[in-house]
Amino acid sequence: MEEILDLLRHNARLAVEDIAAMTKKSVSEVKAIIKKLEDDGVILKYAAIVNPEKSGEAKQKVQAEIQIQVTPEREHGFDALADRIYRFPQVKTLYLMSGGYDFKVIVEGDSLQEVAFFVSSKLATLDGVRSTKTSFILKTYKENDIVYVEDERDRREAQA
Question: I need a labelling partner for 147 at 20 to 30 A (CA). Which of 26, 114, 125, 140 fits?
């Protein structure tokens, strides 16, 4: 099962027949394993990773990372507040963190002003939020093992 997951993580477009050949399993076994992984919620979604610089999205969307300090709720801890935060459509990613702040949130909007307004009027005003610190993302070089920038180095240079 783990071998099939690793193959799909690397390339979700692999044909079942190719996965079967790579894992030395039958096509029906691979189909059954993939179906079980989907039914059990192990595989949540198949998605294309798009380079925003090349697709034009970079010029249209603004992303920011917000560090949030909160007071956890009695009996629910961080979960109830996390539930309120991740339901906002602007929130693309939400992590519970250790260290100097509690949540790390990645939000997206059409402009700096829209993101700033979201943070000041929606996130910062939630009960339990003590402070927010916003940093705007200027450029993505690498994300989830995907390198977004092309190697522009002169290939004739001596390799180190």
Answer: 114
